[in-house]
Amino acid sequence: MQDFIRDMSDFHLDVLREVSNIGAGNAATALSRLLGKPVDMRVNRVLSLPFNDITEYVGGAENLVATVFSRIEGDIAGNMLFVMGAAEGRALVRDVTGESGESEELSDMAQSVLQEVGNILSGSYLTALSDFTGFDLRTSVPSLCVDMAGAILSFGLMETGKSSDFAILIDGEISPGVEIGNEKVQGATGHIFLLPDPEAFSRIFFALGVHRYGSH
Amino acid sequence: MAVIKVGIADSNIAKAPDSICTLGLGSCVGVTLFDDVRKIAGMVHVMLPSTELARTSTYKKAKFADSGVPELVDMLVQAGASRTRLKAKMAGGARMFSFEDSAKSIGLRNIEACKEALRKLGIPLVAEDTGGSHGRTIEAFPDTGVLEVRTVSKPIIRI
């Protein structure tokens, strides 16, 4: 049987990459303002992946990650996840607060900093998406969870799972630059994943006027 | 001794001395069935409670509690297990994010649906580690009938 998520055309995947480009670019600008230093948007990937490969993509099902999850509601529905490794999360908290937490665990304060950063990033991503598509979009109150990647991401895949065994992962990777001496090195990297509900895709393509192109 | 891996919305069986595991259960539920005499175990990683939620005419049975659990029983019987000897242990069904309504969380619905599926099949649920708000990795040992549950921040438990 045809699975429209697995079988999405390259043309439409390219359109989603452009959507991600605009959203993640806006989020990177917002983070840059918050940190008062440049933030790179490094990679934009749009991949149609089987569920198990999605957890591999973020380092395996048991990899410890900090994730801020928001549910998108309005003209389209879906999930937005800001995912970082636990160590990267601590580095980001250091960048924001200027304090170096020594403990391995994320303190309550560190968790609320991450939650707020995730909130700002999701909000700015969504604003760009809304401007681009003309959609009326809002998010639920974002919620932070620090746990195994598999346990967190499988929750985000629940809606998609009703229609498919694949999900389209729209990944915008952002990272603040860190200067050591004169050298600029890679800072903490975070992923902003957009996981639209299956019904959202045709609406996105329709809104952008490309629903007739690139079909099979 | 091999460790057989079960992915999301998948199922498999293992015979002693091999073990069988699934990684990173959140709101999903891992149902494990044991035949202690034949030393065979089966595991299914259930993602959603009911096939009524499926929006397509064909789907992976292991994805849903009401189709995945009976399918696992059939797999075990085909592999030589006795249907009447089977007993179940399960784990998972957490509520991962605070915004989820605890009374209607998908984790809770998955737990209830797996229990209902077992009841219909007449298989006793002898142990469980379900609910809460944390992820779990589980490994079942057909040799001893033990289900090991590992989490990020708590000691390993064996049920």
Automatic annotation (TrEMBL), chain A:
Which parts of the sequence belong to the CheC-like protein domain? 11-43, 109-144
Can the keyword Hydrolase be found in this entry's annotation? Answer: yes
GO process terms (BP): chemotaxis
Q: What is this protein called?
A: Chemotaxis protein chec
InterPro entries annotated for this entry?
CheC (IPR007597), CheC-like_sf (IPR028976), CheZ_family_phosphatases (IPR050992)
Q: Does the keyword Hydrolase apply?
A: yes
Give the gene that encodes this protein. Answer: cheC
GO MF annotation: an example: hydrolase activity
What keywords are annotated for this sequence in UniProt?
Chemotaxis, Hydrolase
PANTHER family, alphabetically?
PROTEIN PHOSPHATASE CHEZ
* Superkingdom of this protein's organism: Bacteria
TrEMBL record, chain B:
Main enzyme class: hydrolase
Reactions catalysed according to its record: L-glutaminyl-[protein] + H2O = L-glutamyl-[protein] + NH4(+)
An individual GO BP term: chemotaxis
Question: According to its UniProt record, what is one Pfam family this protein matches?
Answer: CheD
Molecular functions per Gene Ontology: protein-glutamine glutaminase activity
Please provide the record's keywords in A-Z order.
Chemotaxis, Hydrolase
Q: Name the Gene3D superfamilies for this protein.
A: 3.30.1330.200
EC number of this enzyme: 3.5.1.44
Its job: Probably deamidates glutamine residues to glutamate on methyl-accepting chemotaxis receptors (MCPs), playing an important role in chemotaxis.
Similarity comment = Belongs to the CheD family.
What protein name is recorded for this chain? Probable chemoreceptor glutamine deamidase CheD
